[in-house]
Structure prediction request, 389 residues.
Amino acid sequence: MRQSQLFPKTVKNAPRDAVALNHKLLVRAGYIDQLMAGSWTLLPLGWRVVQKINQIIREEMDAIGGQEMLMPLLHPKKIWDETGRWDSAAEIMYQMKDVGLAFTHEEIVLDLVRKNNLSYRDLPLAVYHFSIKFRNEARASGGIFRGREFLMKDLYSLHTAEKDLMDFYEKCKQAYLKIFQRVGLEAIVVEASGGVFTTNHTHEFQVVCDAGEDTIYYDRKTKTGINKEIVGENNKNLIEAKAVEVGNIFPFGTYYSEKMNVNFTDEDGQQKPVYFGSYGIGQTRLMGVVAEVFHDDAGIIWPESVAPYKYHLIGLNGKGDDVYKKLLEKGVEVLFDDRTDVSAGQKFADADLIGCPYRLVVSDKTGDKIELKKRSSQETELISIDVLR
Prediction:
């Protein structure tokens, strides 16, 4: 991608109302734009980051047997009435006369399953999708942390027995930990309340972060803990920390399936309620957390796994075009600062702000070599284009 054509341009100052660091950095660097409180546009750079996150999630969900699909966002009131959540979730769900906007998809998945008359031979089943969610947050804040409209991956699993559900629940927990590790984050598995989803305790995945809205108590060795909301105060001699929730998992058992009469046919031909679990990750929030955790005074420092481009090539004195074309021919992801109307200093500052893992410089001084600098380091070296992958 040529930076002269990239939309939009970087900006020097953060929005006046920006408090969270992810808000300041992601807007200044051209990753996101705020339409209104809790509603964000993912700009080209931001969409590339989210696509990288999506692919990591997709690979790990597929690895545990998940099948990807896509469900509607406009839901009929009558389905939500079956579980009672049209009324109980009224504060968070955007509702019209006879339809509501999706804030989750448990009822929709269960309705889909009961239409297909599954037997024990069809289970277990795990399906997931990437979609927008709408939640009427009373206090949309923290930059892209807490939105009224946001991207989410939600997985749903169905089983013939509680043991099978809990075995999968543990498998998904480990898959989530692997996802966060691949993104570059260290997640803590925290016991928490189920909110509008269930009266049972559930598990959240929390990342320690000063900008976090949650307070957790955790054990540094086991990377497990508990949310303050269910214990009130720390009485277990654990570490107290501010944290951001990046994922959650819910074991519902047969609670929702019984309400919606969602059954399977067992080996004896009897109808029994399916055991049901739900598992979610917010990709846009995850992008914000990565920006909060990986940065310095100059800008973002993206982990290579989710960076919009691996290399940020800076051409000085009209140079760099040949190198850019050769990198493209090799299939290398590169953002090429080919701008002729900005200074070298501005190009370097923008590269630091945008935060690609590696900066490449081609100039009169580099000759037939390329200057390579890792974003997280101050050291540079001259290399041949042949070593770049």
